[in-house]
Specification:
14 strands; 267 residues; alpha+beta; 39% helix; 7-stranded antiparallel beta sheet; 9 helices; 3-stranded mixed beta sheet; binds flavin mononucleotide
Length: 267
Amino acid sequence: MSKHILASFLLTLAIIAYLFIIAYPQGLRQTGYGVSIAGGEVLLPLPKPVSNMSIEETILLRRSIREYTGEPLDLERLAVILWAAYGVTEPRLGFRSVPSAGATYPLELYVVVGARGVLAGSGVFLDPGVYKYDPHKHVLRLVKSGDFREELARAALEQPWVEKAPVSIVVFAVFERTTRIYGERGRVRYVPMEVGHLGQNVYLVATALGYGCVVVGAFYDDQVKLVVGAGVDEEPMYIIPIGVPAQRHYTSFEDVWEYILSARSRN
Ligand SMILES: Cc1cc2nc3c(=O)[nH]c(=O)nc-3n(C[C@H](O)[C@H](O)[C@H](O)COP(=O)(O)O)c2cc1C
């Protein structure tokens, strides 16, 4: 046997050993759409800087976007949006991307993925379904399979952008985590404030990555819980549909200067 044949034989043996000894026992498999998941979890690409828009320009260009082209989101970009929404940014203390009263972190994120809604590689899509985001492992855990966008839109008073967007992030609050320390003030102030911080992070990162989104607060709470398969202690706060904007919104700083200067000239 030549050295070349021996080397290919050993390489094949190593791949088979990896698949049977390491990968399969951990549950690594290909889904119907060909995305690798391990132990029932979609391992999201690790967060890293992917935009080159300044924070000032991002704030200038942020708008609520309700019309999308129908193109999918890219998994790497969705991963950055989820991390910016509620991911860990201070590993030693476990602090997150948003401020939280007493660092109680009452929020939970579900992600409603439509059919062909998230591109994970060339021609490879994430299975449609409802997933829950685990910020510590930075993974998506499948809650239920299927395309639930139409049902979610029905729960949101038929707002079409909820059905059309390839992906919606649904933000829930477990109020008890905060009210156990802060009582009623936690329920009426601290938790809703934290949801606002999260929503703005999603808006800004989505904008910087060329996506558009809108925060939706009008919906039937019980129906949203049912559609998503949320826990009894989880209350829906926001649905945030995200997609590729059908039209680019543009304002310049010059437009803003003109507005300010004209306001000043009016006394
Ligand atoms: C608490 C809250 C709830 C909202 N609910 C909805 C909603 O149910 N549907 C919707 O289309 N937009 C909703 N919006 C988005 C507002 O309509 C939007 O922010 C406003 O028109 C200003 O536009 P801009 O976000 O582009 O600056 C909501 C915004 C906030 C802050």
